[in-house]
Amino acid sequence: MEGLTTTKAPFIEKAQKNGERFIHQPYELYSEENHKAWKSLYNRIRERWEKYANPKFLEGVARLNLDSSRVPRIEDINKFLKPLTGFSAKPVSGYIPAYTFFDCLRNRDFPTTITVRDISKLDYLPEPDMFHDVAGHVPMHTDKAFADTLVRFGECAHSASLVIQELKDSEIQKQRAVSIIKAMARFFWFTVEFGLIRSGKELRVYGSGLLSSYGEIEHCLKSPDVQRYPIQLEWAVNQYFEIDHYQPLLFVIDSFDHLYSLVDELEKWVREGRVNSVAPGEPNVSELDLQSFLTAKG
Fold first, then answer.
1. Which of the following is catalytic: 161, 212, 213, 292?
2. pTM
3. Of the listed 137, 208, 213, 292, which one is catalytic?
């Protein structure tokens, strides 16, 4: 069987070649090796979720009834998820442009990768895979406050596209668009992907990049090599990040209502021009991401 292994899936390659960004989950194509990889990933991290994940994530795992032994069916996940917050997991063939991603969030859809990482590469994968998206992200989408915050990210992107498109000078438009997209990507990275949250007197994990990493979920809270600071918007939007190693700097929020208020503030900063020239550095803004904001509609 061909399988749906990340970077080795003919079904995905064909969809990408045909320009199909949004697809269905061909469940029958998963190989036994795919199921074995999922089972290994899920079962080895469960104990660390109990120790380090925030309570809302643990509630979400229980509410979704995620299968620990077989790759989950997206349609089954959505049956549990949508009645809770209106969110749905939406299968994609791979990377989608930045504005399209945020616009999906605005409409309570979460772009979800359906491939599973190679069983020989369980510890690190630079590309997103289904374990990262479904086991790392989706349980948080069962919480109303967090789900509403994702929608606000989408609304912020929509406001940003309007601000960018109002500019008449094409060079200024491009420069500001790159800066705004960079600011939004950094803020999303340091919160939704790699965020920490206060839980009583302790710190807990809510970022999906941490929640889906067996090694980093413990490292981020226990290692003396990690700097952990209360989040400040001006720091987050000006701080570059790199994806190929454990994160040396993480930011802490007080609650998901706090995070929601920060996205409100970010949108205000976009409108006021306060992120028109953020610090240089990663992430790079691709032409595809840039054009997605320059040509966004509706």
1. 212
2. 0.96
3. 137
Per-residue pLDDT reduced to its tens digit, 210-234 = 999 999 999 999 999 999 999 999 9
Q: How many domains does the chain have?
A: 1
Based on the residue annotation, tell me whether 212 is a catalytic residue of this protein.
Answer: yes
Nearest to 40 by CA among 113, 139, 114, 120: 120
> Do 37 and 116 contact (CB within 8 A), yes or no?
yes
Active-site residue 193, yes or no? Answer: yes
List the domain range (segments joined by +) for residue 226: 10-294
- Given the residues 93, 132, 161, 216, select the one marked as catalytic: 132
Catalytic residue among 93, 141, 158, 193: 193
| Interatomic CA distance for residues 102 and 166, integer angstroms | 20
Q: What is the CATH number of the domain that holds 92?
A: 1.10.800.10
Catalytic, 132? Answer yes
